[in-house]
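Comment thread on ticket #2218

A.B. wrote:
> Attaching the input chain for the structure job we discussed in standup.
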Amino acid sequence: MADGKDRPSNESASGPSARVLSTAQHALQALEIIAQHPKGIPIKALARRLNISLSSGYYLISSMREQGFAEVSPAGPGLYTLGRKLADLYEGYVAASVQPERLAPVLDELRDRASARAYSAMWSKGDLEVVQIRGRRGARELQDVTKGFRGAAHSLALGKLYLAHLVEDEWPSSLAGPTYKRYTPATITSPVALRRHLLSVRDNDLAFDLQEFSAGACCVAAPVRDGRNGLVATVGVSVPARRFEVEQKQLIRVVRELAAEASVEFGATAVEPTLRSNESSMPSQGGSA
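C.D. wrote:
> Ran it. Output below, let me know if you need it in another format.
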């Protein structure tokens, strides 16, 4: 009886389970190796790197291709690159890693350095959502914007950055009509005017709200990007309009610097933010024309 009980244990150590584990390890190692060869790697070289037989290499690549983890390289026959399934996995990783809480330290510093109310926002379920706020509770500016606030992407600097990088088919349904909701006399309500305005937002990678959502309040926001240069969040500050007229250059610098720091946290390459020449003067008012 004792011998019979021992056999399953020995089999699991060197039998099918062990072989499955070994194959899984080889597949993961193969992904790393293939990633080192953007133009592709031949099966023979891959098998050599994995220290497996050529036939095992063919079997491994065949299984990986079947699951979408490897594909034939367009660079030439006999070469294999990473498959498109890896892009899906990466998107899942980004979705899991882009949590509002990761921006909390950046927002705290942004609030302190700018001495202003700081915000972070993300694109969620087809619209802008403010996910975190730091700053004075009694601040006059943007009183209606609280954590969880959704919409008004065309009038908030936080949202304009997203609209500038999305195709119009991905814009919220509230922006599908001939005119947009007006929050103040300065709100951009014309689709033509908004498209023209967003060209500047895209070119400068910076957005302003000049009393377009709340009278007497101005905002500046910058993008937070990941390692693939994808837009994962926006951060910004709001201040009284009079203060913005005087301190806009300093506010732009601080917002850019903190957005760049947040981007590094999400895998982007560190780049020293610089003030562009066309940002050194007061940006033009949005308006509805």
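A.B. wrote:
> Thanks. Noting for the ticket: The chain has two domains: 18-91, 98-279.
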